[in-house]
Fold this sequence. Notes:
Blueprint (H helix, E strand, L loop, with lengths): L4 H18 L4 E4 L6 H12 L8 E4 L1 E3 L10 H8 L11 E2 L8 H14 L5 E4 L21 E4 L2 H7 L12 E4 L2 H5 L3 E6 L5 H9 L17 E5 L10
Parallel strand pairs: 1-2, 1-5, 2-4, 5-8, 8-9
Antiparallel strand pairs: 3-7, 6-7
Helix pairs in contact: 1-2
The site of fructose -6-phosphate has 14 residues, from loops.
Amino acid sequence: xxxxxxxxxxxxxxxxxxxxxxxxxxxxxxxxxxxxxxxxxxxxxxxxxxxxxxxxxxxxxxxxxxxxxxxxxxxxxxxxxxxxxxxxxxxxxxxxxxxxxxxxxxxxxxxxxxxxxxxxxxxxxxxxxxxxxxxxxxxxxxxxxxxxxxxxxxxxxxxxxxxxxxxxxxxxxxxxxxxxxxxxxxxxxxxxxxxxxxxxxxxxxxxxxxxxxxxxxxxxxxxxxxxxxxxxxxxxxx
Length: 238
Ligand code: F6R
């Protein structure tokens, strides 16, 4: 547990920096949303001070179904704006499922295979939904799931609506890495801050391993770290 969101981001950034420094051609799994923004800012600052990404390969967790890469609310646009445009990564080494692919199922298979082709992810950075989702693996998901198209839970659609002008524009479906895709990473680091994540965090760490809280499947991973601020950890404290 860390005192503040800033310390969560600093620690997450330090772990990724150490990995890139020791393994310059490492494979990173990345998330979007509000949670990793400060971590990405930190990585950009470290790049300005010499950290190189030119051999790093990245895979993102998810993308909205139906959104083209240049849609301002797409996760392609988010990654460009918050990280890729500011570092020296080769864009052909960045992988995000395409929400505008002609055949979304085929796209999911291609994405999953592309992770296998590089030998898997070394370090997957995650956030958590207030309903316990990781990526867009919503409550009820299968622990053996791989990348696929899913329907978003009503609370996820509501949470995501803050980024869209009109309620009817909020995507109802997404392409998402599965629980098994995430668990196949060598190391997983989940970040959470704020009291609205406390219940999901407590269920994920101290509750039963159950599809009711998809993040609880992380308990089965041998190298998974939760970086939490005091508010997100509040229901775990004695
Ligand atoms: C994003 C993702 C989601 C978010 C989660 C938390 O790629 O996979 O699972 O991590 O919805 O979102 P924020 O960080 O906006 O609270």
